[in-house]
Amino acid sequence: MEEKYKHLEIERKWQGLWEDRKLFRAGEDPEKTKFYCLEMFPYPSGNIHIGHVRNYVIGDVVSRYKRMKGFNVLHPMGWDAFGMPAENAAIKHGIHPAEWTFKNISHMKGQIKKIGCSYDWDREVTTCRPEYYRWNQWFFLKMFERGLAYKKTSSVNWCPSCETVLANEQVVNGMCWRCDSDVNQKELEQWFFKITEYADELLEDCDNLSGWPERVVTMQRNWIGRSEGAEIDFKIENSDESIKIFTTRQDTLYGASFMSLAKKHPLIKRLVKDDEIMKRINELSEDPGGKDGVFTGSYAINPLTGGRLPVWAANFVLMEYGTGAVMAVPAHDQRDFEFAEKYGLPVKVVVVPDDTDQNTLHHAKQTGPEVSGSPHSSDRQEQTGGPRRVGISASLRQAELTEANEEDGILKDSDQFTGLSSSEARDKISDHLEANGLGGRIVNYKLRDWGISRQRYWGTPIPIVYCKKCGARPVPEDELPVILPQDVVVTGRGSSPLQELKEFTDTVCPSCGGEARRETDTMDTFVDSSWYFFRYCSPLKNDSAIDPEAVKYWMKVDQYIGGVEHAVMHLLYSRFFTKVLRDISILNIREPFENLLTQGMVIKDGAKMSKSKGNVVDPDYLVEKYGADTVRLFCLFAAPPEKDLEWSDKGVEGASRFLNRFWAIVFKNHKELSSGEKADMPDPERISDGSLRLLRKTHKTIKRVTNDIERNYHFNTAIAALMELMNEATAFAQSNEDDIKVLRFCLMTGVLLLAPFAPHISEELRQELGGNGTILNEKWPEWNEGLTKEDEIELVIQINGKLRSKAMIPDGTDDDAIREIALKDPKITGQIGSKAVRKVIVVKGKLVNIVI
Ligand code: ANZ
Ligand code: ZN
User: Fold this and answer.
1) pLDDT of residue 396
2) Distance (Å, rounded) from C-alpha 460 to C-alpha 408?
3) At how many degrees (to 10) do helices 649-668 and 628-637 cross?
4) Is 837 helix (H, G, I), strand (E, B) or coil?
5) In a mutational test of the pocket of ligand 1, which residue from 257, 260, 321 has the highest number of ligand atoms less than 8 Å from its CB?
6) What residues does 325 pair with on adjacent strands?
7) Does residue 258 line the site of ligand 1, with CB under 6 A?
8) What is the DSSP string of 277-319?
9) Per residue in 293-338, pLDDT tens?
């Protein structure tokens, strides 16, 4: 054995051996319980960063641990390979998106391999390959057949000078990222997936996501955003028109004092005859924070009171939610309140706090997690929960109102509904509206259908052709894949390069054989990632997307690991796809991911590590300098997986020192350890005190490490336990054959426990300790419960420095507990009597001195 721990050599050696023998290859084995461990696959942007490393190492520990526990583990990796950055690189550097992507994949694959992750690379999936994306097209056709893929107009970002559609991330402060022109909105026909059809099921099944972080489940619920309420018709005065509004607060109908319409509401064109007013409406700012509005000149009639309500166009009302129209109740809605203040509109209180039950004051109006980021926040990404604004301090005398009171309460000034509670009133008012044909109950969702059309090159072509006679026709299944042509130049100017390519666009209609033109939109890359975890189960299958038998064996994913930034879209789309695939009966599960772990960020100098902040650390450099095992250990030790990890060079050094110390103990005792019989353990009854202590410590460590992994993957405390064990092993002085056996047992156990965290050095040390083959075939150690029981030690209790009593206590009892034991000791209480205790000093957990 060499004295120096040479991480580079060792890591190369074992990685080579694992790969050559394909030791991570997974296969269905009905005899064994499977475990599917998955990390979110990366976008091949060019380089692995430390956030990736952390993500993959967490998954690797889980995989390796489960393997040692006897599970049949599937642990695959692949590439989310379509997307914008490849096109941006093409535009900036003139390199073809495909070339750029494949170059990055090969580089990043090399980087990932150096971390020593246990991937089955035979299952690698690359979404930009036709073998993969043809199934995107197939799913599209299946959805099209069922009406789940459909077309409608929707707006896109448009740069008038580049004459191109821009992705959201290409719009910087409202300007084109390339030429700084102001970006417009342009209406285009686009393809959508009807995820709203599954809104109810997606919401209901949130209740079954018990293996997910509660925060993520709440974000999913909020994103779906189910609201029960009513639609109510308000007639327009002197007109046949009426305004249909959506409200969740029918109980406040008597307090409505004006109406607000979205500026794009179709009624506005019909109501507003005055060009000047129309112009001002069109010019309303897009920023909903400003609460800007324009009076249309018309009045609506409150269906219950007959009162006249001025109709306004307001910038905070969204066309896409509810009916695009609101009955404004300033006394009970903060946005309406601010609007009314600004434009001098009346405020009428119709709900007062219920004095008989103080609690109702503080009750949020909805039960369950609050839906925040209501439709009024136009940025759906911001919906992360958090309570709705609550106006409990609102004064009840309306002259003094300083804010809206949004709480439920008791109705006043509301005819026959006066005196009812808000919830009773909602019911009764809904009944009344329904009975009189004025409106009725309805459920609304914030969830919108999923727009999947992208006017971009580097994506999956949508398998549709347009025939002059037959309209939009699906490409027949047996003509898939519609190959994305490679011979294009991506310039970023003008329309998508596909539109210019006659070989691609010109085709014949599958129905009538007449002239037809291919769809040139490609799919959102979120389509690719919505089902890749199914593909890993049978990645080479070329006559179908999914092998039902393989999926039946491997799915669900037992442990999914990735960033919380995917809490909504990716995870929701994946759930949606799973349900659709179930409905077209190619699988029979409802949910794809049993357990989800969202790992924290990697922080340096107080900020998230990012290129733009210039605070990145390069994984290649670290692996080179310290070794993959050290980098892995640091990432795992510095914080529990779900918490943010503060980067620290000292911490890396610490991890490195620990591994070197481990190496040194084995080296120091190598001669004794590698000679003599290995297997048999001496009888614990007969060994020396020192040996017994080390033996006990070893069993306790097995128990702690196992429990820490099993309970929420507390790898950091597991590693801390291993460090303690090594400290004891270092301090241990062996003097006979039995001691050596115990030491070997301790070190071998330590090596096995370390294996998931730092697999290369574990392999090497195991070999040095006499192990054959590879550690991958080893079983996870088990502990002997009897040997994990606490040792007792003798506590010496003094008063003013003189021995007064002794007591047996568990080893490792903390100082506070020791103080208490000492002060309650009967001999001591007798001695102290009524004298005052000045000080109680605990020395090394073994001695207490009480000063009186
Ligand atoms: C009257 C009212 C009175 C309202 C009151 C609230 C409080 P959630 O719960 O998020 O579904 N609303 C409806 N459609 C809207 C749109 N397109 N743009 C902006 N706001 C819209 O929110 C439902 C409430 O949001 C509705 O209830 C409506 O205001 C508003 F004391 O109606 B409410
Ligand atoms: Zn046709």
Assistant:
1) 42
2) 50
3) 120
4) coil
5) 321
6) 261
7) no
8) HHHHHHT--S-GGG--EEEEEEEEE-TTT--EEEEEEETTS-T
9) 999 999 999 999 999 999 999 999 999 899 999 999 999 999 999 9
